[in-house]
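Form 12-C: Joint structure prediction
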Amino acid sequence: MSVALAHPASTIAADVTQAVSARELGVRFDDRAVLQDITLDIAAGQYVALVGANGAGKSTFLRVLATLLPAGDGEVRLFGQDLARAGPRVRGKIGLIGHQTMLYRDLTVRENLEFFGRLYGIADPSGRARLLMDAVGLPHRADDPVKSLSRGMGQRVAIARALMHSPDLLLADEPFAGLDIASALALEELLGHFHHKGRTIVLVNHDIGQSLRLAQRVLVLRGGRLVTDRPTSQCDAQSIAARIIGP
Amino acid sequence: MNRRAVLQLAYWVVTAASFVGAALLVAFATPNERTMGVVQKIFYLHLPAAINTFLACGLVFIASAGYLWQRKTWWDDLAAASAKVAVLLCSIVLLTGMIWGRSAWGTWWTWSPRLTFSLVLWLLYVVYLMVRASIESEQRRAVVSAVYGIVAFLDVPLVYLSAKLLEDIHPSSITLDGSMQLALAAWFLPVTLAAGGLIAARYALNRAQRQRSGSAAPEPRGFPVRLVGDAI
Amino acid sequence: MTRTLRQIALLVAKDLRIEARTRQTLGLVTVLGILIVVVLGLGLGAQQGGVGHRATAVLWVAYLFAGVLCFEKTMSVERHDGALAGLLVAPVDRGTIYAAKLISNLVMMLAVALVVTPAGVVFFGFDLSAAPGQFALVIGLSMLGFAAVGTLFAALVSSSRLAGGLLALVVFPLTLPVVIASTQIMLGIFRDGQDLGGMALGVLGAFDVVFLAASWVMFEWVLEP
Amino acid sequence: MTPSQYTLMAYGVGVVLIWGYALVLFLSGRASRRRRG
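Section 2 - Result
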């Protein structure tokens, strides 16, 4: 499977500034603190896994990074740009995948990819769409409506969509949920390729073993606080699980 | 009886006293209007109720804008309280208007601009309450109600203008002499005090119920993006 | 500025292509419109004739219900599989999304009107030829105001169990000034043969301006993913 | 009904609605305090 995830013309080495830097980031829902003073830095090119129990604030944190949710207090910078001020401008550098494919089910795979390509204003959307359909292994389904695809294929098209504008940061919120083994492996491989191109990945995941295997660094959130931030080489599933449940 | 309860009691006693005073004043010390006769005396309740309805609708607007701006739940509770009292007062305006029309022109309903305006205003805020009742998730209900509260208030002048397009078959602008204006002022006080007191009481109840249920919006579990209004 | 226009065109094209692809909504809504005209026609005794001007109110009821269902559909398209989040992460500002949705809704309402209006003319013997230009102007202005409010609330009120019900419950009272003003104008033109009333047109124009501005601003705040 | 009866009816409606609602709020206030108290 020839893989050409990077936009041919873009530079491989993303600029050296931090991909993500948060300072005392906090988010409240109706006077209840969902995220509390999160301070961390993710260098460009790192593969980071974010784990934690349900309601620990994983998805909220990811949605703040995706500029879908304004940060309550504190500050968040992507590639040096403060989200509070430069939110829309920095969106061009973000790719997002989640549980759902975020595609238009009545449109075909090609129409979806080309629509998002044009929306991001990239050069030659149809060419890049063809390229990515090959990359995710679905050239034969190009003109079928997305609703006719299986869940696994849908996730692959979602990855293709997220990469149309060759983002520098890929945010993935439990993309493996509900996937069959074959599709999960294909997805792992795609994420790996993306990372090899020097891009940054923040993966929110339930499966601790898988997270430790895939990522270089693991963050544990509990009750909205960052309780662990360690390279995956220095920890094992049991210790991380203990951190998740907490004292 | 702690200090707050005493203050509350005093407030309501004063309100009741001013009610009685105003009623006596209108019943015995205010002359009947020459052309309309005794039924015109409904005006002394009708107008203050209308003005307070408008103030309550304005409060819903302010609280709604406040919620959208700060996303603090007490704004939402204030908006809900004001809306309930606005509907109550508007019901008084509507009913007294209809009773007046029944006595003066023999029919319970005419599509005159004033009555139509009160009816549409009443509908606007009754629907506000129904929207609140039909949304379970607290945070979603607050956002939808806030937007509705703002749009409804912006609608009020437009409703007034469009109602004026209806032909007014009973133009009746009456001039009030000295003692009539006194009666009007006399009734303005109790109605306003009652409106304020009811809003405060309803607000306190809303706060209490929110604390007891304590169900702050749960953190949205996981992406996918569950869209606006998922829990309606 | 041209980037925004390009994005609006892109979003509207996407909405209309999805609608063309599924087709059932427009068909359903149009048949509903005709059904309303027929039922009210029979109810109001249109067969005795001489009630041509009443068709305006009947057409209004058909447009409103058709409109609400269109708003519901164009927004539910975004809700499937979280498509709106894909949109919100893209460098597109929310005002552009609102404008595109508004135009898509107007186009769909117009499509319905093009079918339902002739039905009204035929069933009611409504003499539209008396002032077709003024009819189109008033209906156009009214639909714009109605769609402005409808598009805003369609984004807020998701298609859950109450479906169109809650949206209709919310939009109808708020747009009453439009209905009152436009029906009064229509009666003036088609029953009394007067010319277009300035005051009434003013109310329609004011409504459109106020609610396009208010919806545009609030859409920005409330369209959380 | 005579005009003065209508006038009394109008004032009756006003007083009943305002003071009725005040009573309702007072009672439910007390009930919730007792539940919480």
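Section 3 - Comments
The two ends of chain B are 42 Å apart (CA to CA). The interface with chain C takes residues 68, 116, 120, 123-124, 127, 130-131, 134, 143-144, 147-148, 150-152, 154-155, 158-159, 161-166, 223-225, 227-232 of chain B (CB under 8 Å).
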